[in-house]
Amino acid sequence: MTPEPSLVAARQSDTPGRSDIGELRAHLEALVATYRQKMQQERLSAFREMAGEVAHDFTDTSPASWREPRSLPQTRRIRRSSSPSG
Predict the structure, then answer these.
(1) What is the C-alpha to C-alpha distance for residues 65 and 50, in angstroms, rounded to an integer?
(2) Which pLDDT tens digit goes with each residue over 67-85?
(3) Cβ atoms 65, 72 nearer than 8 A
C-alpha cells in the first residue's frame, strides 16, 4: 500500500529541509547581529548623554576659579634639604 502523492507532498512541506534550516539560521544570525549593533548604539548614546549631563553639572556647580586658570593662586615650591635631619 503506497501513500497518496498529495499526502507525501503535504508531509514534506511541513518538515523543513536542510536548505530551509540553513536559511532560517542565516536569518537568525542576521537578526542577532542587528540586535547587538542596535544595543551597542543605544549604550553609546546613553553614555554620551550621561557624560554630557555630568560635564554640564560640573561646570554649573564649580567655582569660577576652577574655570579660569588665571585666577588660581600662585603656589610656592618648598625646597627640601637632601641631608637627613636628626
Answers:
(1) 25
(2) 665 555 566 666 666 665 5
(3) yes
Query: Can you tell me the distance from the alpha carbon of 37 to that of 43, in angstroms, rounded to the nearest whole number?
Result: 10
Q: Per-residue pLDDT averaged across 35-48, rounded?
A: 96
Residue type, 12: Q
3-state SS, the chain, equals: CCCCHHHHHHHHHHCCCHHHHHHHHHHHHHHHHHHHHHHHHHHHHHHHHHHHHHHHHHHHHCCHHHHCHHHCCCCCCCCCCCCCCC
Q: How far apart, in whole angstroms, are the C-alpha atoms of residue 43 and residue 50? A: 10
Q: Which residue has the cell 569660577?
A: 64
